[in-house]
Design a protein that fits this description.
The complex is a heterodimer of chains A (about 350) and B (about 850). Chain A contains twelve helices and ten strands. With about 350 residues, chain A is α+β, with helices and mostly antiparallel strands. In chain A, about 40% of the residues are buried. The N terminus of chain A is likely disordered. With about 850 residues, chain B is an alpha+beta fold. In chain B, a hairpin with a 2-residue loop joins strand 36 and strand 37. Chain B is elongated. Classes of the chains: A alpha+beta (about 350), B alpha+beta (about 850).
């Protein structure tokens, strides 16, 4: 009889599923359970009294002795696994819906304070002084209103020297109202060379950032008020080759390690030999474009070996000491690096400009 | 031949129009035509390559200009007839033969100097010419001028773009071949040079040629300076004497007799045209030519106008007058060097000749001067008389005395060539102190300066390529600087010569290897940099402003008292001639401008100097920081606080910045003319006022043209801050903090409206268990009696030694309340 019943069931439902088949279908069905009602139906279907798994467990005793142990173990293990999965799913259904109701609009702007910023000139000065700082240069500063003596005479530019035409100068009225005083707005940061050497003995390695002034008409590339960074290194045994190396290293740091550097002759009364440093144009890589005016090169700074007359003026013996000096326009470097096309923006105080950096 | 007979005499001392001086680059400009350079040196390589080498060696070629390539149908023409225009008095109808098969063209011409028989520049229809008034090149079209058709044009130098001359048409020499294209006749390539002021030798084409020779390894062909000396001995014809050898270093002269003044030959006219110099007469043209060749200005006097034929070089007498070539009667100031004869002055040395001795059509005997004047004196006099000429451009650089004699001989030779006559035997030469300097360059010096061991042969070859006379001596070189190079005076100058011609690229790259200097503290700068970073982090944008101001704005915004601002002699803007004594106006002005252009709220700061002059010495440059707030506190946002920034935003920035520096300030009600009474506080650090914070008055807003209130601002004197705080950059000491828990209690107090929060906080702070005291609400209005306000104060209680019990806290709170009641009349809000 018993076998007859079995055979009739087999006729309607096929052979009973194996433990592994039950596992696969049960877990797959559980994924789709999205309410407690469906979850209860699942429990009845896979763990209930009439479920396939219960049937398997019930039929163990009728199996051959050698199969009983393995089938029994795997069926009991599946039962535990399904009960655990059920509990987990129940937990999930319980917690899920209330959290979604509180979801954030993650695209709303975050809470932030208004941000300020440093002027691009300040940022550029910091980068320049940092680059030289890494080579042992300290920072010094000097007065913006300067004596004619320091701005010109001490730098080997005596009165009525034609080289003074290179620096159109703002002069200050005499405070007593009688004509011109011998005070001026410094035309370069170079006066600090003389001041420093007067105050200190070698070795000197210093960079001098600061505000300078030239009396000239302004346009997109000329401004009467600007910043320079001056540099000075004086000691025994400093050579033109050292100057090249130092400035080359600077250019690598500021404009990138792939830049080429070129030195050509230029004239400044306070250096001899004099030089101008240029880098190959980073816009066209030296091919020639509007930025480098077709030359492939961009002038960065003037430089040279400190003139023996300047050393003598401050009481250094030019037979013992040598040194080099250099000077560069901060805005020019900032303009090159950021692609700024009008130098007048720097002193405009315009937040549309300043907030970009 | 008409047209080029001299109506007025010009020479190299009187060329105002064409200063080749570029104010933008501050470099001196000079044009070196290739055809002219080739007279002295072979140029076989591409011009780009020659130009590159010149540039690298210091003679910068700004551009290579091709002259004439664009002209089109412009040729040598011959004026066959000149007739009046039927309808216009100032215009003439000119018949021009230009060699065309269709015969002569009739052209309308307005130039006063056009005359029958002249050779001229004829531009046919389609020629590309420069507009002499507006500039820019355009195509010539056939047009009717006052009813008459003009078939082309007779051109000035300016219309061809080769000079600025537009007074009249360009008159060509008689021997010019009619029909020759102008590009063949005047066309050339030209190096447009930008020179440094130490190289006046390159203000002569020969000097540029020497650079070409040195940089390309070619030989230089010196111009011929020999000529037949067929006249009487020169000292029988004239004498010279230098009375002031400090201002005249050398005076050379020669005498030429029986000259025929007249037009110059074609080659001379063309050469001068490349320098923008109009042809005047053969003799004057030669003086100009030699100046453009050698860089030495010369002057020709009519010998017969010189009393006793005796030249005296002296300072002007007091009250002396001279009428110069330009017919201006000039009173001569002391230290003006004049050329004189025994009874009168006849010229301003190195500047301009006198009208009384100028050469004219009747001149037959000429005294030719080539002198070396002291550069600085020439520069002063030129500046005083506002007479910057091609001559002063060269003299002021300080020419070498050796140059004057060479240039004199060259000019004499050329005058004989173009004007005939005879030259005297010998030259007059007053040369008080011989300039025969020798510069010694030791091997050691060369190595020490350049860091390169240049081989002996290379040094000698390099210097010789520059025509520099060099002798090898024991461990060095003896060099006689050439007469055209005033810039070679010390051994370092020779280092540059060697370095630049061998090439700076050949100098190796080494790094500094010596001692690193001892570190020096810079507390002022360190503080400034910290303040900058801090204010930026608190939401303020740094600005930098021009440090000049108007006195009315400075007056309005207040600032340090008792300093009168320094005034610029030559301010950039007449509205702002003063160096600022306060930087408030700079920051406030920036706010006002941004109100008109910036969409959001404004928060900015500036650090800079106020220039405070106390009457003696340089002014103190007192470093100040000013911050300013205006408009919405925050960007418009769904979470932002609403409202415009006010006093408390400015104060908050100050508090935050000081806290970043490890400092604390007390704010005391204060008065300042820039700020509204009752909305202004002094910033006090360690008992010393370091600044002020407040809201600007209406008057300030009006003065700076700001139409949005409030403008809240602070100003801190950074020097005062350093003084008040010791070292704000010093490391902050660590403070032990207690491990016992704190308890928080709120007090809702009602006090008279006039009681300050600070007074309440101060009382609570005195209790030994109170730690942090926050004012969390201030309210007046409904529910609070008239004249009173309610404050919510949150107090944290904590002990260093134990966990406080509720009872202990209540006791402390009761004590605090009792004192608040007694001292401030505070009550708990019911």
């Amino acid at each position: 009889m018993a076998s007859g019943t079995e055979s009739s069931e087999a006729a309607t439902a096929g052979p009973p599923p194996s433990v592994e088949e039950i596992r696969t279908t049960a877990l797959a069905a559980l994924v789709d359970a999205d309410s407690e009602v469906v979850l209860d139906q699942w429990r009845v279907a896979y763990l209930g009294r009439k479920s396939d798994l219960t049937n398997v467990l019930r039929s163990i005793s009728s199996l051959p002795a050698e199969d009983r142990k393995t089938v029994g173990a795997s069926a009991n293990q599946l039962r535990g696994a399904l009960e655990e999965a059920l509990a987990e799913k129940a937990q999930e259904l319980k917690a899920g819906p209330s959290e979604i109701a509180d979801a954030l609009d993650v695209t709303l702007p975050g809470r932030r304070r208004r941000s300020g910023g440093l002027h691009p000139t300040t940022q550029t000065i910091r980068e320049i002084t940092d680059a030289f700082g890494a080579m042992g240069f300290q920072i010094a500063e000097g007065p913006e209103i300067e004596w004619e003596r320091y701005n010109f005479d001490a730098l080997n530019i005596p009165a009525d020297h034609p080289a003074r035409d290179q620096w159109d100068t703002f002069w200050l009225d005499s405070p007593d109202g009688k004509g011109r005083s011998d005070m001026l707005l410094r035309t370069h940061t170079s006066p600090m060379q003389a001041r420093l050497m007067e105050q200190t003995d070698p070795p000197i390695r210093v960079v001098i950032p600061g505000r300078c002034f030239r009396y000239e008409a302004t346009d997109a590339t000329h401004e009467w008020h600007f910043f320079q960074v001056e540099g000075l290194a004086v000691d025994r045994g400093i050579t033109f080759a050292d100057m090249k190396g130092t400035l080359f290293e600077f250019a690598r740091r500021i404009f990138g390690p792939e830049r080429k550097v070129r030195f050509r002759v230029d004239f400044f009364p306070f250096v001899e030999p004099g030089a101008e440093m240029a880098i190959d144009c980073f816009k066209c890589n030296g091919q020639g474009c509007s930025m480098c005016k077709g030359t492939g090169w961009i002038e960065i700074m003037g430089a040279g070996m400190v003139h023996p007359a300047v050393l003598r003026n401050v009481g250094y013996d030019p037979e013992v000491y040598t040194g080099f000096a250099f000077g560069m326009g901060v805005e020019r470097i900032a303009m090159l690096r950021h692609g700024i096309d009008d130098v007048r923006q720097f002193a405009s105080g315009d937040l549309r400009f300043l907030s970009q950096f | 031949m008409s047209g080029s007979s001299p109506q007025a005499t010009f020479d190299s001392y009187r060329n105002f129009d064409l200063l080749h001086f570029d104010h933008q680059s501050q470099k001196v400009r000079m044009k070196a035509p290739i055809s002219w350079l080739k007279e002295y040196v072979d140029i076989t390589e591409p011009l780009q390559e020659v130009a590159h080498r010149l540039t690298m060696a210091g003679t910068e070629v700004g551009s290579i200009d091709q002259v004439g390539a664009e002209w089109g149908p412009v040729v040598v023409g011959h004026v066959q007839a000149v007739n009046p225009h039927p309808d216009a008095d100032r215009l003439q109808l000119v018949t021009v033969d230009f060699g065309g098969p269709e015969g002569p063209a009739e052209v309308v011409c307005g130039a006063p100097n056009v005359a029958e028989g002249q050779n001229i520049v004829y531009a046919g229809i389609g020629a590309m010419l420069t507009d002499p008034y507006k500039g820019g090149v355009s195509k010539l079209k056939r047009s009717k001028i006052r009813g008459v058709v003009s078939n082309g044009m007779v051109c000035s130098g300016k219309e061809l773009g080769i000079s600025d001359e537009h007074e009249g048409i360009l008159v060509l020499p008689e021997d010019a071949t009619v029909g020759t294209p102008m590009v063949d006749y005047l066309g050339d390539a030209i190096f447009d040079l930008e020179l440094t002021p130490n190289r006046p030798d390159c203000l002569g084409v020969l000097g540029v040629a020497r650079e070409v020779a040195a940089t390309s390894g070619k030989a230089i062909r010196e111009p011929d300076i020999t000529y037949p000396e067929e006249g009487p001995p020169v000292d029988s014809l004239a004498t010279i004497r230098i009375d002031d050898p400090d201002l005249c270093l050398r005076y050379t002269a020669t005498v030429l007799q029986n000259l025929k003044l007249g037009p110059s030959p074609e080659w001379l006219v063309k050469r001068l045209a490349t320098q923008g110099q109009a042809s005047i007469s053969n003799v004057v043209d030669v003086t100009n030519y030699v100046m453009f060749e050698y860089g030495q200005p010369l002057h020709a006097f009519d010998l017969d106008a010189v009393e006793n034929h005796a030249i005296v070089v002296r300072r002007s007498f007091e009250g002396e007058y001279l009428t110069t070539l330009d017919d201006v009667d000039r009173e001569l100031e002391p230290d003006t060097l004049v050329i004189a004869d025994p009874v009168k002055s006849i010229g301003l040395a190195g500047l301009m000749g006198g009208a009384n001795s100028e050469i004219s059509g009747s001149t037959v005997n000429v005294l030719l001067e080539s002198a070396t004047f002291k550069g600085s004196n020439n520069r002063i006099t030129a500046g005083r008389l506002d007479m910057k000429t091609e001559a002063t451009l060269r003299f002021e650089k300080g020419l070498r005395p050796g140059l004057s004699e060479v240039a004199l001989r060259r000019a004499t030779k050329l005058i004989l060539e173009v004007a005939g006559g005879t030259a005297a035997k010998g030259i007059l030469d007053a040369y008080p102190v011989k300039d025969d300097a020798i510069v010694t360059l030791t091997d050691e010096k060369l190595l020490k300066v350049m860091g390169v061991e240049y081989p002996q042969e290379q040094v000698i070859a390099t210097l010789e390529s520059l025509s520099i006379d060099v002798t090898r001596v024991a461990s060095g070189y003896e060099v006689r600087p050439p007469y055209w190079r005033p810039d070679i005076a010390i051994p370092e100058d020779l280092c540059e010569e060697i370095g630049r011609i061998v090439g700076y690229d050949d100098v190796p790259v080494t790094t500094l290897s010596g001692r690193v200097p001892t570190w020096e503290p810079s507390p002022d700068r360190d503080l400034r940099e910290k303040v900058r970073a801090s204010l930026a982090s608190h939401g303020l944008q740094e600005i930098i402003s021009y440090p000049t101001e108007s006195d009315s704005v400075m007056e309005a915004v207040g600032g340090p008292k008792g300093f009168s601002p320094l005034r610029l002699e030559n301010p950039m803007s007449q509205d702002q001639p003063f160096m600022r004594t306060t930087i408030r106006a700079s920051a406030f002005g920036a706010v006002a401008r941004n109100v008109r252009t910036w969409r959001g709220g404004i928060a900015l700061f500036e650090i800079g100097a106020a220039y405070l002059h106390s009457g003696e010495g340089l002014p103190e440059e007192r470093q100040m920081v000013v911050g300013a707030f205006n408009g919405p506190r925050d960007v418009d946002s769904w979470v932002a606080e609403s409202g415009d920034a006010d006093f408390y935003d400015a104060k908050g920035a100050v508090e935050g910045m000081l806290e970043d520096l490890g400092l604390q300030a007390v704010f005391e009600i204060a008065e300042d003319s820039a700020f509204e009474p009752g909305r202004c506080a002094a910033i006090v650090v360690n008992g010393k006022q370091v600044g002020v914070v407040g809201e600007a008055t209406r008057a300030v807003l009006e003065a700076i043209d700001c139409d949005r209130a409030p403008l809240a601002a602070f100003e801190i004197d950074l020097a005062a801050l350093v003084e008040a705080s010791g070292d704000p950059g010093a490391p902050r000491p660590y403070q032990l903090f207690t491990r016992y828990p704190s308890s928080v209690r709120d007090l809702a107090l009602v006090v008279d409206a006039g009681i300050s929060a600070g007074a309440i906080q101060a009382i609570i702070a005195k209790n030994r268990l109170s730690r942090q005291i926050d004012i969390v609400d201030v309210y007046s209005g409904k529910g609070v009696p008239e004249g009173k306000k309610s404050l919510a104060v949150r107090v944290h209680y904590q002990s260093d030694t134990k966990t406080l019990t509720a009872k202990e806290i209540e006791k402390a709170e009761a004590t605090i309340l009792k004192i608040l009641r007694q001292e401030l009349g505070a009550e708990l809000r019911s």
